[in-house]
């Protein structure tokens, strides 16, 4: 009892880590058809919402640093899904823009969220509640 707080099953961090691994694994069959990874998928989601943004803005939205984003963006560019261009006014800023192929991928990906939900045992309202709780949790720990 004295060390119950150190049991693996009592660790919030472990439950989040294991859940993240499992949900990412559940995405794999849907994303492999599109030829992209989970991290590339969430990158594309951001770009489908807001095209032609800087790497910094993209990294902020995804909680990824430029060292992680750069190789990922190179692969997306090599696949013909995005273009990277340096800003003329300040070459330190690199903008990410969808290609026609990148835009077309959105149509192919539109059913993935529903398919993923079906792969879980959650109903739509439970998934929405969990997502909102996790948003609150993330905002409470961010920048601590």
Q: How many DSSP H or I helices?
A: 7
**Secondary-structure arrangement, i.e. CATH architecture:** Orthogonal Bundle
Strand content: 5-15%
The main sheet comes to:
3 strands, antiparallel
Instruction: Please bin the fraction of helical residues.
Output: 55-70%
Average pLDDT metric:
94
Shape: globular
Low-confidence stretches: none
Number of domains: 1
State the order of secondary-structure elements, H for helix, E for strand: HHEHHEEHHH
Which class in CATH terms? Mainly Alpha
Q: What is the structural class?
A: mainly alpha
Q: Can you describe this structure?
A:
The protein has 144 residues and is mainly alpha-helical. The protein has one domain (4-107): Orthogonal Bundle (Arc Repressor Mutant, subunit A), CATH 1.10.10.10. The chain has helices at residues 12-34, 38-49, 55-62, 66-78, 100-109, 112-118, 124-141, and strands at 53-54, 82-86, 94-98. A three-stranded antiparallel sheet has the order 1-3-2. It is globular and about 60 Å long.
Helices and strands, with pairings:
Blueprint: H1 12-34, H2 38-49, E1 53-54, H3 55-62, H4 66-78, E2 82-86, E3 94-98, H5 100-109, H6 112-118, H7 124-141
Antiparallel strand pairs: 1-3, 2-3
Key descriptive features of the protein:
144 residues, mainly alpha, Arc Repressor Mutant, subunit A, 3-stranded antiparallel β-sheet, 7 helices, 63% helix, globular
């Amino acid at each position: 009892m004295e060390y119950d707080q150190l049991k693996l099953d009592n660790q919030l961090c472990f439950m989040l880590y294991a859940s993240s691994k499992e949900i990412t694994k559940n995405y794999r069959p849907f994303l492999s058809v599109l030829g992209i990874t989970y991290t590339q998928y969430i990158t594309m989601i951001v770009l489908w919402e807001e095209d032609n943004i800087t790497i910094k803005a993209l990294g902020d939205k995804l909680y990824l640093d430029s060292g992680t984003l750069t190789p990922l963006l190179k692969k997306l560019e090599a696949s013909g899904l995005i273009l990277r261009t340096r800003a003329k006014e300040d070459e330190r800023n690199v903008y990410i823009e969808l290609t026609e192929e990148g835009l077309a991928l959105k149509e192919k990906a539109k059913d993935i969220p529903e398919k993923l939900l079906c792969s879980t045992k959650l109903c739509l309202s439970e998934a929405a509640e969990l997502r909102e709780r996790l948003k609150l949790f993330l905002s409470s720990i961010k920048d601590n």
